[in-house]
Amino acid sequence: MSVFTTVSNDDIVPFLQRYSLGQLVELKGISAGVTNTNYFVTTTHGRYVLTLFETLRADELPYYVNLMVHLAQHGIAVAAPIANLQHQYIDELNGKPTLLVPCLPGAVIDNPNAEQCGQVGEMLAQMHLAAASYSGKMDNPRGPQWWSATAQKMYPFMSEADAALLHAEVALQSEHKFDQLPQGVIHADLFRDNALMNGDQVGGFIDFYYACNDILLYDLAITLNDWCVLENGDIDDARARAMLAGYQSVRPLTEAEMADWPIMLRAAALRFWVSRLLDFYQPAEGEMTFAKDPSHFQRVIAHHAARQNFWMN
Ligand SMILES: Nc1ncnc2c1ncn2[C@@H]1O[C@H](COP(=O)(O)OP(=O)(O)OP(=O)(O)O)[C@@H](O)[C@H]1O
Ligand SMILES: N[C@@H](CCO)C(=O)O
């Protein structure tokens, strides 16, 4: 359940008076999501999603919120933030910073087909191109320095064999530099639960709160590792090829990107192996995460390692 901060009709009515969205019809908590409090707010003008930020402070939000505004201006399928009468996107309710966006069409899906993976790949590439003119800057808080330091803390919790595998994977990545690859603004967490699919079309990408400036290929690898991977951690060829084709229909990969693709897939899996280990063994105090299985990404890496030459065909 992810209503951490309760909002009542008495709270929302004066809040809505600060916007041009009509009168309240219905307020309904959203159960999905693990970080923030989300409500569907229906008014006489339409349906909106209200987010109350549980961990990010108001002064940390502009990079993400302005990015969503920028992408929406370019026609990317994201929810465009709605400004209040003071022309501010970030407001406050019950002591938490808030954001109101329109409700996007579609639903989160568990089992995407190849067509949907192709559409996600295409929209991701469009997003990368559209974000090239975004001026905000944010370092990746979950980059190689972070995963090396965090892995160190995880070894004592792990079996000797698994710790050795993790250690070897961190070492492999530290020997590899991706300096020559195109960079830009990336979503950095575009898992299936961060996109709404409207049939085969992308209804919208959501949850931009890991977005940062980093390598574009890394974003594609993160996305493919979730959308196009089977339960056992192996790649689903048809979905993976569809996502790559969709992406490249908009932004063809450079030769350097092609050469680094197999190792980048492993980097993207490593980042989530480590973050899931951390959530599993050392959950942040007060954080209500449903720890996801870290070993899934260990298996994804094993499959990528075994299929190093798969992408050449
Ligand atoms: N603009 C939107 N339109 C329709 N539904 C939305 C929208 N934004 C969020 N949702 C719904 O709310 C749910 C929770 O949102 P989200 O995943 O962003 O939660 P969170 O707790 O903020 O993030 P996370 O769980 O990834 O840490 C989504 O699964 C989706 O069903
Ligand atoms: N998408 C992440 C959680 C949020 O960063 C995972 O599945 O591990």
UniProtKB/TrEMBL annotation:
InterPro entries (UniProt xref): Aminoglycoside_PTrfase, Homoserine_kinase_II, Kinase-like_dom_sf, Pseudomonas-type_ThrB
Keywords carried by this UniProt record: Amino-acid biosynthesis, ATP-binding, Kinase, Nucleotide-binding, Threonine biosynthesis, Transferase
Pfam families per the UniProt record, alphabetical: APH
Enzyme class label: transferase
GO molecular function: homoserine kinase activity
Catalytic activity: L-homoserine + ATP = O-phospho-L-homoserine + ADP + H(+)
Pathway membership, UniProt: Amino-acid biosynthesis; L-threonine biosynthesis; L-threonine from L-aspartate: step 4/5
The keyword Transferase belongs to this UniProt entry's keyword annotation: yes
Aminoglycoside phosphotransferase domain ranges (all copies): 27-253
Entry EC number(s): 2.7.1.39
Family stated for the protein in its record: Belongs to the pseudomonas-type ThrB family.
Name of protein: Homoserine kinase
Species assigned in the record: Deefgea chitinilytica
Biological classification of the source: Bacteria, Pseudomonadati, Pseudomonadota, Betaproteobacteria, Neisseriales
Recorded name of the encoding gene: thrB
